[in-house]
Amino acid sequence: MRLVQRAPELPCGPQRTPARRRRHRCRLAQHALAHAAAALLALALLAGLLPPTSANRASGHDCPHGNILDMPDTTDCRRLLSKLSGAGCLPHYHAAVIQEEPEEACCRNAASFFDLQCHCWGSQFDHAAVAAVAAVDAACLHHAEQRSAEQQQQGQQQGQGEAAAAVGGIALTRLRQGQAQHGQHEQHAQQHAAQQQQQQQHPDIRLFVGVLSAGDRRDRRDAIRATWGTHPGAYRVRFFLGRPANETVFEAVRAEAVERRDMVVLGHITEHYHNITHQTLEVMRFAAADPAVTHVLKTDDDSYVHFDRLLHCLAGTYRERLFLGYIENPGGRPHRNTDHPWYVSREEWPEERFPPWAHGAGYVLTADLAAELAPGTAFAASEGGHLFKLEDIALAGWLEWAAQRRGFKVHLVVDKRFNYEGCRFGDLVSHYMKPEQLRCMWERQGHCKC
């Protein structure tokens, strides 16, 4: 792979004329006002004038580090701002109107603004606009919490009134309530004990899980959310999607992203098999953006992750520069026959060999390797600045390129328990699993047929 040559820097332009100086001063004044508005919002948050909710995402701490070389089409983000303005929530793009009872449209579009990572594109939206949307989102979450508390209080009062009216059933009601509370307490205690046990066994492993998915696979995502995605060993689980070609499916994905808040939708990347490399790169960027992450697992939405065995495996191997999976080493040669289903042209991959690569059903990198890829290595290492269409080989190529130029060694650890052909008892990751099989594996602790 060849390094993409950097374009020469252009010489500075002529000195500004008086008219240009005035326009320049005007722009500086606008930026100063924008920064002042953002500072006021920050002071309000610190002073407790706004609730300390997830709307503080506008600070940008959840944005990927490094240079964003594949800048998205921000049409969706601008459309959300227009919707907020049309609903009366954001009349001037820089001034939020905090209503006593925010409209549903305001809350939905403000949440979508952050779920689509619009706040990460600083060159497109100034700080004041982002801060205004954050204020709307904070108000929505605050009022939602208030409504929930009021409904809970009303339910308690109603229950007390009914119990008082039905004097003869008081004892039975208390008995049932006691049984229900006992069951809930027991369930919470079991979950808490499992989390504590997991933390005691592997306290220094924080595994970020990036799951590649597609828009019409809600059933698979829900199955993961109900099964291995809830395992206490999963530090964080996120689904990464491209943009579905069908607008109806895309709207459903957007609604799901707002509801679940565990999805990253690349609105600028069309959903296609040859584009999943972009989703994989975004997994690495998100993981690298969180300093607490120690390991990154990339997997698919038809995979089952056996966390107990996987964490035990990670605890006994390299803690730095680790590339773990079912690795093909040597990596083989590209197929040059145009009739082959995995045909690769010389323009796409000029070399006559592939680097050692791991099958994409599941593989693990330590966080330091993810950080090597996040800032732009992927594009610099790619022929012509275009990401290679086969994501598992593309990632291996990025690692090899970075290791050669930065002078470090990648620890390749081959483990065939990353099963990319189905499932066997003892797997670390099982592949080609249907939603009902995921639930069976979870309920029966892996003792299910594929």
Please, could you describe this protein's structure?
The chain is of the alpha/beta class and 450 residues long. It folds into two domains: 31-141, no CATH class; 196-443, Spore Coat Polysaccharide Biosynthesis Protein SpsA, Chain A (Alpha-Beta Complex). It contains 13 helices and nine strands. The protein has helices at residues 18-47, 75-86, 104-115, 127-165, 170-201, 218-226, 247-260, 276-289, 307-315, 367-373, 377-380, 391-406, 435-443; strands at residues 207-212, 234-243, 263-270, 295-300, 304-305, 322-328, 357-366, 411-414, 429-430. The strands form two sheets. Strands 3-2-1-4-7-6-8 form a seven-stranded mixed beta sheet, with helices on both faces. Strands 5-9 form a two-stranded antiparallel sheet. Strand 1, helix 6 and strand 2 form a beta-alpha-beta unit. Helix 3 (104-115) packs across helix 4 (127-165) and helix 8 (276-289) packs across helix 10 (367-373). The longest helix has 39 residues, at 127-165.
Key structural traits:
46% helix; 450 residues
Q: How do you describe this structure in short?
A:
This protein has 450 residues and is an alpha/beta fold.
What is the topological layout?
Layout: H1 18-47, H2 75-86, H3 104-115, H4 127-165, H5 170-201, E1 207-212, H6 218-226, E2 234-243, H7 247-260, E3 263-270, H8 276-289, E4 295-300, E5 304-305, H9 307-315, E6 322-328, E7 357-366, H10 367-373, H11 377-380, H12 391-406, E8 411-414, E9 429-430, H13 435-443
Parallel strand pairs: 1-2, 1-4, 2-3, 6-8
Antiparallel strand pairs: 4-7, 5-9, 6-7
Helix pairs in contact: 1-4, 2-3, 3-4, 3-7, 6-13, 8-10, 8-12
